[in-house]
Amino acid sequence: MIHLKVTNLHKSFGGLHVLKGINLEVNGPELIGVLGPNGAGKTTLTNILDGAITPSSGTVYLNGQRIDQLQPYEVARAGLGRTFQVTRSFRRMTVLENLYVPALALGHVNQGRALRERAMEVLEFLTIDHLRNEYARALSGGQQKLLELGRLLMLDPDVIILDEPFAGVHPKLMEVIYAYIRRMKSEGKAIILISHQMDAIFALSERLIVLNFGEMIADGKPEDVKNDPDVIEAYLGRDEEEDA
Amino acid sequence: MRQVPNIAGIGLVLFFAAFPLVYTGGNYDYVMHVLITGFFYAILASSWSMLAGYAGQFSFGHMAFMGIGAYGAALFSHYFHLTSAPTGVCTEFPLFGNWLVIKNAIGVTSTTLTQDCLQQAIGQWGDSERVWRMPVLLGIVLGTIAGGLSGLLVGLLVLRLRAAYLALFTLGFSEIVKAVISAEIDVTRGQAGLELPALFENGVTVLGTEFSSTDKIPPYYSMFFLLLLCLLILTWLARSRFGLFVRALREDADAAAALGVNTTRYKVFVFTITTAMAAAAGAVQAHYVQIVTPNMLFLLQMSLVVAMAVIGGVENFVAAALGAIFLQVMLELLRTSFSIGGINVDMTTWRLVFFGLLLMVVLRFFRNGLIAPLIDWFTRAGIAEETIAKRRGVGAEEAQP
Question: Does A105 sit within 8 Å of B255, measured CB to CB?
Answer without folding.
Answer: no
